[in-house]
Design goal:
With 506 residues, the protein is mostly helical. 50% of the residues lie in helices and 1% in strands.
Length: 506
Amino acid sequence: MRDVVSSELPAIGRGPSRDVFEVLMPSHDDMIETLEHEMRRGGVDAFKFRNPRLTLAQAERLCERLQDSELHGIYPFDLPGTQKVWEGVDHRGVSYRQIATRQYLERHYGSSETDADFRSIEGFRRVLREFTYSHFTSEPINRFGTRLAGMAQYFAPAPHLGQTCVLEVVHGDPELSEVRAFGVSVADFTYSGEYSDKSGAPLPSTLSALKSLVCSIAGIYEEETGTTLDIRRPEDFAKILPRLTRTAFSTVPVSNWGTTIDGILDSVLYRSDAPSAYLDLISRDEDFVAIRKIGIREWDFQSPNETWSIRNASGVLEPTELAREFTGTLIKQLGEKLGVDPTSPMGFREVLARLKTDTYQKTKVGFWGTTGMSCLRQAYGGSVSAAVLDLISTAPQYFQIRLIGILPEDFPRAPNNYWKDPAGNPSANARRIMLRWLAMIARDQGLDLETEEGVVKAQKYISPKRARKAELNFWGTTPFGVLQSAYDGESKSVIDDLRSNGSKIG
């Protein structure tokens, strides 16, 4: 598979520059000589006592003159207040930022009796494991007591400043060639800090880490199947989509260091919402432009908690807007298949006959083949009518359906316990439907249900066969289901139940 992970080092600040045309006036030479004389006797403390404000060129001149003294190895950044020192480079063209960072690594991650040197793979593992921004900016980097708080302030705000400085050393220092060849990025640091900018958008390093995760998942798939993937192609991306889970953030290494990026997922940026992280990458990376054109949604990934339902202020679970949107997409797709507009009454009637549990379980929504059983179970307790009625009650495009009116009994299968009460007796819903049917029979046959004779004659028309064909409303709802479920198909049971519960018949 093509390596699509960028290894470019993020830039910091304005980069190194140097005014090579600066000319020191004689008075400046006198000042440098005075500082040199005092520092040879009193060290860096003498400089701090004087507290001059040197230009970078002046500081470099002073440091050169002190190399034959006990202050050998001193650099302009060891002289507090040196102007633009963090933009400067030494005579080799190496930035002072890099030199200072190298000194920090030497002092705190050099070889010891218990730890390997940071130049080795094992030694650098310790850098990745222990490095923190606060330690980097507050601890002395050398024998002169220099600290890097000033550098941090100079480049602020610069996300991942410390990690980026370390990476500059890795990429520019010949002695770290082994580490460089092994590969290292900001994501490999245990304490990588920020993941988003002030606007809330993910940093480039965050997106790079997310892409590394997707590529690692694809690599595992290739090894297991013996195939080659191009994850830019929707057909290949679909093969790894089921593996783009929350668990992958904590179990799939994104580098040779065994780094996982669960810290990114658990950060304020994503709050453990894996689909949001993957979608962030897809929406911003040009390698996924074909995926964007097809369209991909949160429900196409393994659904985390609160995808389909969320607790309201009273602690009661309610369907999310995403759950309603999924049902709307499913109905729209069914309408397209039937060649009807499901937002019109006649079109919805065609679709309604197909709105069953099997539809959510087996119908593949969109290119990625997502089905809706998790949505149905988590948001609506498995009730198709509850899911569809929730959509109809809130979506403006279904206003004609709302005007006609639709109830749970109008669906191919009514919800559980809809026709019977907890005691197992016919429910009020069952009696309402039976009364409507009896009224229809009386109208068609010219019967008076307030008389015993009328009720007896109407009872003869109550049968499962007739119930299948008796359409009670615009949606074609029949009383067959209630007759079988609540009354075991018995006409006498219907009449007895209606009479015993106060219905005004016979």
